Amino acid sequence: MPVFPADDIHIERAAQRLRDGGLVAFPTETVYGLGANALDASAVAKIYAAKGRPSYNPLIVHIDSVEAAQALVSGWNERAQTLARAFWPGPLTLVLPRSSRIPDIVSAGLPTVALRIPAQRVARELLERAQIPLAAPSANASGEVSPTRAAHVSASLGEHIWVVDGGDCEIGIESTVVDVSGRFASILRPGVISENEIEALIGPLTAPVSGGEEAPRPSPGMLSRHYAPRARVHVFSSLTDAHFHAVLLGENQKVGVLCFAPTRIEDAREIVLPFDPRACARRLYAALRELDEADVGLILAEEAPDSAEWAGVRDRLRRAARGHEK
Ligand code: TXA
Ligand code: MG
Prior knowledge:
By secondary structure, this protein is of the alpha/beta class. It is about 30% helix and about 15% strand. The chain contains ten helices and 14 strands. An eight-stranded mixed β-sheet has the order 2-3-7-4-6-5-9-10, with helices on both faces. The chain has a four-stranded parallel β-sheet with strand order 11-14-12-13, with helices on both faces. A hairpin with a 6-residue loop joins strand 9 (about 175-180) and strand 10. The structure holds threonylcarbamoyladenylate (TXA) and magnesium ion (MG).
């Protein structure tokens, strides 16, 4: 039974499988993760294989306490302490210098490790029972939209993957990733915890170091080709733009629309998203999947406001669109 309920018996079985070096997909408050024992390199290798994930893209390690996090880093610091106290458990990932206990494969050879304490009940119970840190990227084939419900995992990775079903994810987009490993802190991936909230606690952030698309980067998740649905995505900034592109690109294919207010684009499959950053994030990936399932060839997505609270949603839409430029 590849998808099973999140009751005691099944969580225990899942924990046992993880201790034995197997893979289990499990819910977190952000998206479903594909977990393996983070201290076991051959278990972690199975994650890369199952996802078709490039070996240079490191994984997030999930733990259930700050002490467990501290045991996996070589330099816990004050900023990490402040952010952990404010946002853990929750949708925040901290990048810190890694301890030698973390196998190379987890952090793709980087000198750092990404850590997060999830808040979701099932994730917490699984971590408690397994008593091991869990490396877990989003439980989707590499490059695809992250899963926000159990059925998405099976659809993306296959029916043979074990999935603990914890219902729909409350946050809906991946955690905010903050690099606090060096002298300057920076956001490597925006999420629902905003830049403003982080700066209010640890002071000004700097832009992440980036050497262009092909250069080694501090966070390969910053690769633009990521989080993409099957359909081509165009982000529109006005109704005129939307209608223009529907005509220009929509010929001979079904058009899907993601918008905050109805567009009246003819014959389009339209999903109106809530105009609230958190509510919108919760709905976003399932909406992209619905449009893919409706076999649209083109998705016209309304640009989200340019403010810190919307940065996560804006980022995912931009990447969904860029996934098709190459
Ligand atoms: O919300 C989430 O973060 C979900 C749930 C399952 O926890 N996980 C997730 O994992 O989104 P994944 O693998 O899809 O994204 C991990 C991100 C990538 O952008 C990766 O490049 C970055 O974290 N990352 C991991 N380790 C890193 C490191 N040592 N330095 C910089 N970035 C790192
Ligand atoms: Mg992912």
